[in-house]
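Annex B. Sample input.
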Amino acid sequence: MKTFRMFYMQTGEMLCFNGVDLVTKTPALDSLVHKKYLTREKFAGAFSLTRAGYSEMRDSGPSE
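Annex B, continued. Sample output.
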């Protein structure tokens, strides 16, 4: 969630990961998709926040 917070992401906005960043973050991103905090987009390495994910990001604060 820290990466989404860093870019001031809103619900439905797409954030793309690639290369080493995608490889290293895939387990965490998959976990967030499973929790329904993120939606996997059709574009490779792209994810967007769900409403629940946006709330979780806001509630988790900058210390995550």
